[in-house]
């Protein structure tokens, strides 16, 4: 299939339709508004449902209801809009329903601004809403991965009956790149759990368990599922890590800058590499532990004041020095800035993250 020059937000929309998206419920907020705009125009053409809800809260509860029928359903928003959806996301996870949630992050906290940031890492990977639930979190770094990971998100949501979040940022959403849209191979999932199904069985779908013993059992069943996800769904990319003396951990748009910084550093004879998590949950802790056992030095770069860095600390081998360099508020570091940070660490002048 020929490549298409397209915005990241629109790439998500086109990929979702190709993946068999049946219903979209959302509410506009920058910098992701091109996604619902695209779907509003294109979904009716293929006989699918697009609905702009009256609020983010309404939209996520519409997702909850539609997901219970077993169809493919999605919502999208940006940072503060996702915050409004968190109660509903917890309900969906508690009811073990598949859906896709897209967050094209903006600067925060509060209303912040519409510039790119990665300040929603905690919200996405540590639950965000109430209770003992987890989301599968995919972190694309390009227009191509915005499309590919959207298709993957629907498959994973159905495989584990769990919400999947595509965590992007304003840059990726607004940036145009050449994208090849692959034809997905969709497997029809078993639907004996849906509200109405081919077996003629009517199910009641709920996330409420009044009896403590029953709720504890449900939580432990969820935990077993999340552990299975950790075993089977970790995804990451390594770049020039074979002989590195220090490696940088970065995801999303930041990894694009880090890649350039690694190439610049290599030109100066500095042995540095990059580890890019493609799944933020499950987190690629084993490979980070393995690499840090060798280097004993790790630099984490992200567009925040330090969130993913905590998971890197927990994943690193004993005795590893973990450093952090971040920009926030919509500011993005340059490759030259990062090379300076790398040199400072290797000269023994870096400050260990605490």
Automatic annotation (TrEMBL):
Q: Which residues form the Pyruvate:ferredoxin oxidoreductase core domain?
A: 245-334
Tell me which UniProt keywords the record has, alphabetically: Oxidoreductase
Which Pfam families does the record cross-reference, listed alphabetically?
Answer: PFOR_II, POR_N
GO MF, one term, reads: 3-methyl-2-oxobutanoate dehydrogenase (ferredoxin) activity
Q: What is the E.C. number?
A: 1.2.7.7
Domain of life, source organism? Bacteria
Spell out the NCBIfam families in the cross-references.
PRK07119.1
**Protein name as catalogued:** 3-methyl-2-oxobutanoate dehydrogenase subunit VorB
Organism in which the protein naturally occurs: Muiribacterium halophilum
């Amino acid at each position: 299939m020929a490549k298409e020059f397209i915005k990241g937000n629109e790439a998500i929309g086109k990929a979702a339709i190709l993946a068999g998206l049946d219903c979209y419920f959302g509410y506009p907020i920058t910098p992701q508004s091109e996604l619902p705009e695209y779907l509003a125009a294109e979904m009716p053409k293929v006989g699918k449902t697009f609905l702009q809800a009256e609020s983010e809260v309404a939209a996520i509860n519409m997702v909850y209801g539609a997901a219970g029928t077993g169809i493919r359903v999605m919502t999208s928003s940006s940072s503060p809009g996702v915050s409004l959806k968190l109660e509903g996301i917890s309900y969906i996870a508690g009811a073990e329903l598949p859906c896709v949630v897209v967050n094209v992050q903006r600067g925060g906290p509060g209303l912040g601004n519409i510039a790119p940031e990665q300040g929603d890492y905690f919200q996405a990977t540590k639950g965000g809403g109430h209770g003992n639930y987890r989301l599968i979190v995919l972190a694309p770094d390009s227009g191509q991965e915005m499309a590919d990971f959207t298709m993957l998100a629907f498959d994973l949501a159905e495989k584990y009956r769990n919400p999947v979040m595509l965590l992007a940022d304003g840059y990726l959403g607004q940036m145009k790149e050449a994208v090849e849209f692959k034809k997905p191979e969709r497997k029809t999932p078993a639907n004996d759990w849906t509200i109405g199904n081919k077996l003629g069985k009517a199910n009641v779908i709920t996330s409420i368990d009044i009896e403590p013993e029953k709720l504890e059992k449900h939580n432990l069943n969820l935990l077993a599922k999340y552990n299975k996800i950790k075993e089977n769904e970790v995804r990451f990319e390594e770049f020039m890590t074979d002989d590195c003396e220090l490696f940088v951990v970065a995801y999303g748009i930041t990894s694009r800058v880090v890649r350039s910084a690694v190439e610049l550093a290599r030109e100066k004879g500095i042995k540095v590499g990059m580890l890019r998590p493609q799944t933020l949950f499950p987190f690629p802790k084993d490979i980070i532990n393995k690499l840090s056992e060798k280097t004993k030095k790790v630099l984490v770069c992200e567009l925040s004041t330090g969130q993913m860095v905590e998971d890197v600390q927990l994943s690193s081998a004993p005795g590893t020095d973990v450093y952090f360099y971040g920009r926030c508020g919509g500011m993005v570091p340059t490759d030259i800035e990062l090379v300076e940070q790398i040199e400072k660490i290797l000269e023994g002048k870096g400050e260990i993250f605490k």
